[in-house]
């Protein structure tokens, strides 16, 4: 048995993004009228502008961006018949 224990943790780089997108959509749908200003308030309240905060390397930003686009595409392709 090794004297040193090495634990490798697998972390999904975009963990929580889909949940945040769900919350963004939910809050937007709660409004009687959604305009750009209201959308921006929700966006800021959920701190979406911090999505790349702490990402120090170009490779990490590229990997995260790729995952964010993949997740975002799932929302664009969803059945939206129940949306107004």
Automatic annotation (TrEMBL):
It comes from the Eukaryota. PANTHER family: SMALL NUCLEAR RNA ACTIVATING COMPLEX, POLYPEPTIDE 1 (PTHR15131), SNRNA-ACTIVATING PROTEIN COMPLEX SUBUNIT 1 (PTHR15131:SF3). This is snRNA-activating protein complex subunit 1. One of its GO terms (biological process) is snRNA transcription by RNA polymerase II. It holds the Pfam family SNAPC1. InterPro entries: SNAPC1. GO terms for cellular component: snRNA-activating protein complex. GO terms for molecular function: sequence-specific DNA binding.
């Amino acid at each position: 048995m090794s004297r040193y224990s090495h634990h490798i943790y697998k972390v999904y780089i975009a963990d929580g993004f889909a949940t945040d997108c769900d919350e963004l959509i939910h809050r937007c749908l709660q409004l009687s009228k959604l305009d750009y200003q209201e959308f921006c308030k929700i966006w800021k309240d959920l701190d979406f502008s911090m999505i790349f905060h702490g990402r120090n390397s170009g490779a990490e930003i590229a990997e995260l961006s790729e995952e964010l686009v993949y997740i975002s595409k799932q929302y664009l392709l969803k059945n939206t018949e129940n949306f107004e």
